[in-house]
Structure of Lipoprotein-anchoring transpeptidase ErfK/SrfK:
Amino acid sequence: MRLLVLLAAALFLIAAHAQAQVYAPYDGYGEYDGYGYDDPYSPYPPPPDYELEPDYGEPLQEPREPSTRIGRGTIVIATREHTLIYTTSAGEQFAYPIAVGREGKQWYGTTRVVSKRLHPEWRPTASMRQKNPRLPEVVKPGPANPLGTRAIYLADGLLRIHGTNDPSSIGTNASSGCFRMYREDVEELYDMVQPGTRVIVQR
């Protein structure tokens, strides 16, 4: 009997430890937490809106044809269609499904790529760690990293295009403003786009 109790306790501790290593998908751009935009990438902190159980159940809206009559070498994000279209300088087009911001967290306009990061680290802010003491100071690259394997930073605050550790959110309004992509898609896009690439975010 004592052996069974010890075994059950050990299994509980293992399960709790494993759960503590999984971090909900993060992204956002609405709050700077005192971090100036003059040097936003060294190190790059996430906004303080950490969500333990975000809701990915929002239904897709009726699709319409995204407008792609934009110049070459441009990224067009059709928010309502949950689609990112990149037109290369040679005129070739690549379309990818994405997750976009939830209602009230969406941004529209024209911006540009300012930086890229391979295997980005995720650094919860002090306020996030205060709310959730289980969070580490930094989440190293790996399957638990909410930013995935690639991050493409845009010029407007903390807005970015990046991977995700929850591919089931792709195609929905799930984020706090950023654009999530499947791993293979963001890795392909990362290799093609360069700083200065124009980005148009449509409704």
About this structure: The first strand starts at residue 74 and ends at 78.
